[in-house]
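BUG: 3D viewer hangs when loading the predicted structure for this chain

Environment: internal workstation, default settings.
Expected: structure renders.
Actual: progress bar stalls at 90%.

Input used:
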Amino acid sequence: MLVAVWRGMAHQQAMPLKLVRPLSVVPAAAFFTNSGNPASAHDCHSAFRYLLQTRSFLVAASLYSLAIHRRSTLDWLFISRANSLRRSRHRALGSKVYLWSKRGTHISSVETAAIVFHSKMRAQSYASVANSYKEVATVELPKNFDFSAEERIYKWWELQGYFKPDVNNDKEPFVISMPPPNVTGALHMGHAMFITIEDIMARHWRMRGRPTLWIPGTDHAGIATQLVVEKMLASKGIKRKELTRGEFEAKVWEWKEMYGGTITNQLRRMGASCDWSREHFTLDKQLSRAVVEAFVQLHEKGLIYRGNYMVNWSTALQTAVSDLEVDHCEEPGKLYYFKYPIAGSFGEEYLPIATTRPETLLGDTAIAVHPEDERYEKYVGRRAVVPLSGGREIPIIADEYVDREFGTGALKITPGHDPNDYKISKRIGLPVINILNKDGSLNENAGAYSGLDRFVARNKLWADLEEAGLAIKTEPHTLRIPRSQRGGEVVEPLVSQQWFVSMEPLAKKALKVLEDGELEIIPERFKKVYAYWLSNIEDWCISRQLWWGHRIPVWYSKTAECGKKYIVARSEEEAYAEAMSVYGADVELEQESDVLDTWFSSGLWPFSTLGWPDCFVEDFQRFYPTTVLETGHDILFFWVARMIMMGIEFTGRLPFSTVYLHGLVRDSQGRKMSKTLGNVVDPINSINEYGTDALRFTLATGTTPGQDVNLSIERLSSNKAFTNKLWNAGKFVLQNLPPASETAFWTRLALQKFDTQEALDQLPLSERWVVTKLHILIDAVTVNYEKLEFGEGGRAIYEFFWSDFADWYIEASKTRLYKNEEIASVACAQSVLVYVFDKVLKLLHPYMPFVTEELWQALPHEGDALIAAQWPKSSLPKDLHALQQFADMQALTRAIRNARAEYTVEPSRRISAFITATPATSTNILKEKAVLVALARLDPHNIRFGPSMPAEDADKAIHLVVAEGLEAYLPLVDMIDVEKEVHRLSKQALKLQSEYETSMKRLSSSDFMKRAPVQVVQAIRDKANEAEEKLNAVKKRLTLVEKMAVQCSK
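Structure tokens produced before the viewer hung:
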């Protein structure tokens, strides 16, 4: 029938049909060809529409499955068709086939048929339809999890709306704002870290039933974006200054539209389950309105002012930059020592001064010494002459700031070009002299050096000091050079007219919420850091001399008689209205050319993205304040603290009650990743090679809050192996279930629960043990999630799955599943396998979303998607006695395995055992005899139990003391060929004896001991000790075997 349908359709479409595999195996594995070439997407779309119109649902599913599998004809039309089906009465085709479609050659056509017929004929029993195909209706998983499936799964989640909060759910929402990455950015490990942790939070609480909103977005990144576009224009021979501001902004927007989505697409690759329908950009209309409103309100409260203050000045970017945009690099340099003549001494007296920047002496306004420094006590109160200045004099002062141990102990004070000197000048009222132009050249205050570049001036000035006899010496010195993060040039401390926010009033409120316990910071040690910074806060320079960004909403009159007054307004229209009321209708205005610091708009992020300043919009009412803020500890001051201050100031509420700080991602040696070191690990490359799940699990479990994580390829490889282990366990479970067409049985498996003590008590020991361990795990991991202990939680799941479930229970279950005529025993094992594995997938899903979703969909389950499945319940019944009973059997198994390994027993060889134990322990082990036989490789016909082994037999056996009241005897004759073992051990003893004697002979040679390096002598001594230790062990074992050989011969 299927062949006929295919051929009939091919005839009507005028396309020949090519089958790539026999229909009995993979009837869906076909593709259309047109003159021998693969069909176009249009052809396949036409075929797909035709099949739906003619109600050929089975073949439509097959074609759709094929298209996804081949990926040659996939586009969104197929997806929309599948989803239109899902919304119709053929829901099964739309939801099931979409997930299964990628398997192409693995999904059975009859399984698809059963799904479709179930949708079409609701009155007919699904089981009766499935039974007619049960010979071949099985769902198979491929050999390994295909990483390329991750994008398909992600698109399906997004299309189904799983990332959006359920607006009809009246539970308390869980809301988290994504730290907006720069729109210029490409995914790096810092992004990968915060996406992993935040997605874990979002997926967990979504499964816990809370309406979950994770708000994504990007930052306009003023400096970075302007630099990128300037470089792009320069490559075309265009300079920014050749364009008007409007023309340049248009170029930036063009660039943003073309390349700005790169980072968000990469965040999707990481599995970020954020609500993309609420995505924001810090320069979009809503957020720009919020920025203007915030500026106006702060200005109206007297918290924004224009003034002169010291800033970090980038001479290349021609703008002030924040502390975060400055890297302090240790570089080799010089310490210059020179003479500072004492005024009135006619050159006979001087103070020796040491500096790293001699050119700045032209801006000196004082010399400071420590008040307790006896060397310079007599000079305090006198004056000194600034060298090469034409005779300008400055005071010599005493100040405790001076470090007597650095340099000469006398410090030149240059308030215009050193932040610490600037603070001293503000404290004691020293004048400030600026000797630098904005481009890094010296200005007219530098006298004869005016117009020279700062570094050229340094060399010339030092040469002039030498010529004048004022130079003393230079010596090598390691400098901490402030360099621009963007351009790499040396940043200059410079006093400049800028716009500032008065921070002290805002900081007091932000401190109070911490002191009152309203704000929780994890880890707790950062509370002190937060409090210290707020207690010593300085005013915030919020202006930047750029063209890209939020232009400061300030207008100046072009008319000279209006003076230097300015107008702050929400719009140009509002500014003109106010100006005309003061200066008349003929007034002309021009807007401030500076833009706001990017961190200003980012500081509004938690509430501007939810609609503020419109506080009555639905999102703001429902989702503000947010729940938690997660980010790196390195921006606690620059972003987190400012959001808290802004949130309290503008909304009257904390923007979030919990701050979770993760560490930095470093290389395997703990070094910061950098292109210079060549140790950068690219997340996308890691995803392609190891899979997203492995990368996420590595990042999440490799650290604790606030601690840096060392990322190694070995850990990535290990967690890729974990993904494979999980996949193979899923295949094992699936392969040991009846066909999916037996829907009644699959439904029972999906609904099977061991959530009562009665249900648990009815299970055999192995099953009671693993279910109890699972229930304990659920309790512990749920608490880990709630306490944000993601590393601990992930490691606990890993340990349970790998050790308890995979290594022990799966192996134990094989004794029920294989060659077992007891149907109830088989069904019990199947139920427990599905029950435990289902819960493991749910616990693990927030860490490893892709592989868990794929496995969950293939197995019996309740619900449409794992991402929206119900979280496992806590406080489920447990049998603590079962834990001890199974632990006894585990200990016995390990002891026997160790003995087998020690005596090199072939893995396939079955051995006998005599077990002595208490009656209760013997009973428990007897009930699980098949498990013990399988795990310890025992001969099932030669296992005996008793209070003690006969003495004559005990002498011929290996005695194992397992635990109190539990011992085992393993007859040696079953384990080894005694004569061969004696021969082997004797030969090994001779070899070790020879190695030991050779080493000792060298060590006893006085000539060798005199000439050999210490490390060589130690290596030989270690070799001798090792040989001696091994020799003693072999001799001991040889004695035992020889003794047993005598016993066996009697």
